[in-house]
Amino acid sequence: MTTPQRGTGAVTSSDRLSNSQARRIALAAQGFCDRPPAGSPTRTHFARVLRRTRLLQMDSVNVLARAHYLPAFSRLGPYDPDLLDRAAWRAPTARAPRLLAEYWAHEAALVPIDDWPLFGWRMDDYRDGRYRRSAEILRRNRPLARDVLDVIDEVGAVRPNEIEAALGITRRPEEKGAWWVRGEVKHLCEAMFAAGTLSAVRNEHFHRHYDLAHRVIGAERVGVRIDRREAHRRLVSRAASAHGVATVRELADYYRLATADVRAVLPDLVDAGDVREVGVDGWTETAYLHRDARLPRRIDRSALLSPFDPVVFCRPRTERLFDFRYRIEIYVPEHKRVHGYYVLPYLMGDELVARVDLKADRSAGLLRVLAAYAEPGRDRGAVAASLAEDLRRLAQWRGLDGIEVADRGDLASTLARRTGARR
Questions:
Q1: How confident is the model at residue 4 (pLDDT cuts 50, 70, 90)?
Q2: Inter-residue contact 40 to 83 (CB < 8 Å)
Q3: What gap in Å lies between CA 26 and CA 14, rounded to an integer?
Q4: How far is CA 115 from the centre of its chain?
C-alpha cells in the first residue's frame, strides 16, 4: 500500500471520458487517492473512509474477517477494529459520539448515523417488517409486540432470548442455539427493526441487541421526517459521490433504490449542479459525474478488496470498469466452485489483477491462501511481489504469525516463493 501520487484534480468540462478515466475517478471517489496515515489510523482517518464509502455492507461470514471491517483495512492498512466497534455499537461519549447505525441500505449495512432519517420512507414500506414471515407474525401478535417493547423499554439493549425469558416464553430444547430457527420474539424484533421502532447494537460475537430506536439513534434524529422524494434525492447524490461516475442502474444499486425513483430525482440533481451527464467509452448507458469527482493521473495503491467492498459489490459495474468478471461462491457447492469460497479481488494500481481465496486459521496462527489466480496477461512476478506484501500486512492485522499458500491457481507457486510461505 504505497503513498498516492499527487496530481488528483477536478475533472475537466469534457462530456466524454475513457473507461480508464472512469476507473480512476471511481477509485478516487472510494478513497484510493487519499494519503494513508503516517502512523496508526485514528478515528479521524476512519471517519474519512466513511465519508468516501457512505456505507459499510455487513455480512456474518467470518472465515477471514467480517465484511464491514475490511473496507477500512483496504484503504487505511492495519487499523484497530475497535474504531469501528466504538463508532457503531459502544456507548457514545461527548468526545466520541456514535458515528454509525445499522439499517437496510445496500442490504444490511452500517450507515452514518445522521443518514438514518433518510430511510424513513423505507421504514414506512417495512412498517410490518421486511420479510413476509415476520410481517405475518407481527400482524397477528400485536399484543406480544407491545410486551416486547415494554421489556426493552425497561431493560435496555437486549437479545431475543432474554426477552423470552423475561416474558416467560419457553421453546423446545432442540430450538435453542439453532440459528435457522427463529422464535416469534426474534421475528417481532426484526419486524420492528425494519420499521424503525427498534435499532440495535452488536456484541463481540456479532449478536444483535435490540433497543428502542431513540436510545441508539437519538431522539433528535428519530423525530425527523423527510419527504420520500427529498430522501431519494439525497441518497442518489450520496451514491453519485461514492461512485464518482455511474449509470442510473449503478446509482440505484448503491442504496437498493428503484431505477424509476433515481430517474425521477436526477433532473433535480443536474439542475442543482450535483451531477452532470457524461458519456464513457464502451458504456451503452449515459453516466452521471459527481461535481466533486477527481481524476488522478494514476493510482499508486494496492489493496485486497472484500467481496462486499463498494468498489466491487455491483458486479456489472465491476465487469465494465475493470474487465473483471467476479462472483462470490460462498453459496455454491464446493465441487462447483471455480475460484474458491471467500475470494478477494486484488487491486494493483487502477486494475484488478488477481483473486485469492483466503482463510484466517486462528488455531494454527496462519493466513491460508487456498487458491491464487492472476488475471490473463498479467506479469505474475510483479503481481506476486506486490500481493505478498499485502498478505503479510493482512496477516499482521488479523494477528496471524505466518502465511501458507496451497498449490491451487496459476499464481500459487510464484506467490509462495515471494512470501516464503509454507506449502
A1: very low
A2: no
A3: 17
A4: 15
Evaluate if residue 276 carries a pLDDT over 60: yes
Question: Would you state the cell numbers that stand for residue 74, as one nine-digit string?
Answer: 483496504
With 0.90 as the threshold, say if the pTM is over it.
yes
Name which of 252, 249, 246 is nearest 278 in CA terms. 246
Residue 384: per-residue pLDDT? 98
**Average pLDDT, stretch 309-314?**
97
d(CA 15, CA 17): 7
pLDDT digit string (tens) for 236-247? 999 999 999 999
Which grid cell sits at 51? 465519508
